[in-house]
Design brief:
Layout (H helix, E strand, L loop, with lengths): L11 E5 L4 H12 L3 E6 L4 H11 L4 E4 L5 H15 L4 E4 L14 H29 L2 E6 L12 H21 L4 E8 L5 H6 L3 H10 L12 H8 L10 E4 L3 H4 L1
Parallel strand pairs: 1-2, 1-4, 2-3, 4-5, 5-6, 6-7
Helix pairs in contact: 1-8, 3-4, 4-5
């Protein structure tokens, strides 16, 4: 039931963490629009690419990359541009919401959390700007989370990075708007990926979260696809510097 955005056909799309969880759903969503998709992740994505090719008739270009390694990330973006043409849609999606308390955070852990949840977003944006400018415009979507909007406890280094993503999004939108480059943030609620189900989705926590939702149905990765495609397409051509929430109404009710 996902709508078709004709202008996404043929676009060069780059997704961080595009082979699992929300990222995998996004990769499939863009492929079904006719986009040329490249993505990075740490592990081998060959089986996933095989599945996508069989399901959509299009094969994504997968690269192994540790996104906390800035030169490696920049090299992956350059490779994607060589394979698919200059990146015109960037989706900064990969993140790590490892649970932790303030007392146990070390300097090394803090730096790692900012590297994987914030720094890589900035340098990916920086890398695609010249190509987008030459192409006459582009769309950058930074995936954050409602966790910082709710003031959630349990992962303060993560929520700090999430808040900074929104601030960065607004500044880049202002800086590169004259180049017709739109920069928006997408803020999912609790999306029940396999990782979430395996590690943190206890029945009592699921029930408590559902009680906060206006729409009484837990989110799955596919629920994020429509909003992402909208922000990437010309259907949202007058939107930039915005934070779009897809959470079933949690932020509304607290």
């Amino acid at each position: 039931m996902t709508p078709i955005f004709p202008d996404l056909d043929g676009q060069s799309v780059f997704i961080t963490g595009g082979g699992s969880g929300i990222g995998a759903a996004l990769t499939e969503g863009f492929l079904r629009q006719g986009a040329k998709v490249a993505f990075v992740q740490r592990s081998d994505a060959t089986p996933f690419c095989d599945t996508m090719e069989a399901a959509t008739g299009r094969r994504p270009h997968a690269m192994r990359c540790d996104i906390t390694d800035t030169p490696a990330l920049q090299a992956s973006l350059a490779q994607a541009a060589e394979v698919n043409g200059p990146v015109t849609v960037l989706v900064n999606n990969a993140a790590n919401d490892k649970r932790h308390t303030t007392e146990e955070v070390t300097e090394d852990f803090w730096d790692w959390m900012q590297a994987i949840n914030l720094k890589c977003y900035f340098f990916a944006c920086q890398a695609v700007i010249p190509g987008m400018r030459a192409a006459g415009g582009g769309a950058i979507i930074n995936v954050s989370s409602i966790s910082y909007m709710m003031g959630n406890a349990g992962y303060p280094a993560y929520t700090t990075a999430n808040g900074a993503i929104t601030a960065m999004t607004r500044s880049l939108a202002r800086e590169f708007g004259p180049d017709r480059i739109r920069v928006n943030a997408l803020m999912p609620g609790w999306v029940l990926t396999q990782k979430q189900l395996d590690m943190w989705a206890k029945p009592e926590d699921l029930a408590a979260h559902l009680d906060k939702m206006c729409l009484k149905e837990h989110l799955v990765p596919e629920d994020i696809v429509g909003g992402m495609l909208f922000l990437a397409s010309r259907a949202s051509k007058s939107m930039t510097g915005q934070a779009m929430v897809i959470d079933g109404g949690v932020v509304t009710t607290g």
